[in-house]
Description:
This protein is α+β, with helices and mostly antiparallel strands. It has ten helices and eight strands. The protein has helices spanning 2-68, 74-102, 104-107, 110-133, 140-270, 276-307, 320-330, 332-337, 356-372, 430-440; strands spanning 316-319, 341-346, 350-354, 379-386, 390-397, 444-450, 454-462, 466-468.
Amino acid sequence: MFKKKLLRFAIVSLLIVVLAAVMVLWSSRVTLNQIGQMNTANALLNEHLQLSSTSYRLFKQLTDEILFGQFANQSAVRNKRAIIAESLGKIRLLEIQQREALGIEFTAGSIEDTDALEALIDSIIADFEQIVENSDPVDYDDRIRFILEERIDIGFREAINAAVTRQQNVVDALNSRIDGIHVIILWTAISLAILAIVITLAGVSSLLRAVERTREELEYQVAQRTAELTSANTALERSDSIRRNFLADISHELRTPLTIIRGEAQVALRREQRDHEEYRTALRCVLEQSVALSRLVDDLLFIARADSNSLRLNRQPVDVVRLLHSVVEDTRALSEHHQIQIECAEDSVASAVIDAERIRQLLVILIENAIRYSPANTQIILRAKISEADLIIVVEDFGYGIEANELPFIFERFYRGAQTSKHEQGMGLGLAVAKAIATAHGGRLTASSTVGEGTQMTVVLPRELQREMA
């Protein structure tokens, strides 16, 4: 088994080495060919520059002879013309080689323009010779000016510049091609290196996997058992933490009303004679605290049942709009006492299969919270709408708002925000109960708020529990 894997690994490695060698040979050959073409292009540039320099010296010598009456050295003229002819011959030969190597696309017009350049040089020399032979003073200056300006400064210079520019373009194209080849070689080398690394790692991994399979299996079993024990320990720690926090919170919440009840009873019994109104006041205080205790116990029992998934809901088809209006009526006395107006705005008429009493309890909690943390002469809007998948009920107020750092914690049990100390004291269970009701219905309760502008509580119930009414 190991021999077969080693043999396969060796064969693949050998193929990679062979492929790398082929790439090196190919890149070397292509690079040498491109370097040769670069040398040809540079040689053509040099020959064109040599041709330009020699031609200008010849033209100057012929011009001096005409303008200053200095007889040209015919031997020097013949020498320059021979050099020009030699340069043109070299240029033709190099251009033919270049065209055969690069094709007409790269060398279009080169050979043809060289023929035209030779004809231009010959015609300029012939014009000088004609002026020398026929020195008619009538148009003597115009003819010289025409040769110097039109034939040499414009025609000859443009022809030389065009040839030089064409060869420069060839050089640029060759440089671009070489750069492209270098990029191909670079990425090919990188790819081969990556492939070699991957194959090496895969081969080593394959060889080691067979050896370590048993150890990995044992480690997996140990890790699985450790994870189970860790999870169980975490669950126990969390349960213990929840228990301790619950006992601390409930002890705190129970102590105050019990202390008040005990205090009122002790005061009522301590004095032998008290009038009827004093007893009524004491009993009224005891009743209020007993009601608060009863509500606290009910909320705790509800949350406990929700945590244990033993909460039972009496789901029935309910007219949502009618339910919203009844909630508004239930909270009207409290809202009028605080001089706050509640408006019910339904975007659509719908029924929902829900526990009406529990949803009523949820909405009353949200509205009472909104009243508690809103200034007088403001408004609370209660509205319901149907989306594609959900029934959405929104309670929006324009009160003091909730700080951004408090929003993540407002649904936790016994949590009281910074505004609590400024307004009516709550037990910190209302929003926890409201969220538990929404969760029990398979929905969710979320909050968004801007300090100084108000708060929006959104109840979302799954669409499959609702159906639209006609």
